Amino acid sequence: MEVHRGEVFYADLSPVVGSEQGGVRPVLIIQNDIGNRHSPTVIAAAITSRQDKNRLPTHIGVRANRCGLAKDSIVLTEQIRTLDKRRLRERAGRIPEDDMRRVDEALGVSMGLHDQPVAQSTHMDGGYF
After folding, report:
1. Distance CA 9, CA 25 (A)
2. HSE value, Cβ hemisphere, 13 Å, CA-based, for 51
3. Distance CA 111, CA 23 (A)
4. Which of 40, 67, 91, 96 is most buried by a 10 A CB count?
5. Torsion angle of alpha carbons 89, 91, 97, 100, nearest 10°?
6. Ordered domains of the chain (ranges, CATH)
7. pTM for the whole thing?
8. pLDDT-derived band at 116, boundaries 50, 70, 90
9. Which pLDDT band, with edges at 50, 70 and 90, does 117 fall under?
10. Residues 41-87 pLDDT 10s
């Protein structure tokens, strides 16, 4: 299976423990393309369409019509998992470059690479978009 950074796939994330995101749900591939090409696994961030989650600097809103999803959604960069490629189902689409830059900033916050939250434009009008 060919997988590229920035693509959105549906993946089976079960079984889970506690507060982990589970079930068949969209994920964003965040691993680099060299790893994607040569490894049997990928690194992905869970995506949710639930807008009632606590707003965190690690949450990045993405518009459905820009990434192939059915609903506007939130990339949860604090919910990162290494997945065997066999967990991946169909490809939904791709996140645009400007949204991927915001995802990269949020990953830096999530991993403690920098302590500044993602730019205000991430949460326009007090929401995710």
Report:
1. 8
2. 11
3. 24
4. 67
5. -20
6. 7-124 (2.30.30.110)
7. 0.86
8. low
9. low
10. 999 999 999 887 678 889 999 999 999 999 999 999 999 999 999 99
Backbone conformation region of residue 73, classed left if phi is above 0, alpha if psi is from -120 to 50, else beta: beta
Query: What is the number of helices (H) and of strands (E) in the chain?
Result: 3, 6
How far apart (Å, rounded) are the C-alpha atoms in residues 48 and 26?
7
122 falls in which pLDDT band (50, 70, 90)? very low
Return contacts of 72-76, CB within 8 angstroms, 24+ apart: 72/128, 72/129, 73/26, 73/47, 73/48, 73/49, 74/47, 74/48, 74/49, 74/50, 74/128, 75/28, 75/45, 75/46, 75/47, 75/103, 75/106, 76/21, 76/45, 76/46, 76/47, 76/48
Distance of CA 10 to the CA centre of its chain: 11
Q: Give me 49's structure tokens.
A: 């369409």
Smallest Cα–Cα separation from 12: which of 85, 95, 103, 93? 85
Distance from C-alpha of 26 to C-alpha of 95, rounded to nearest angstrom? 12
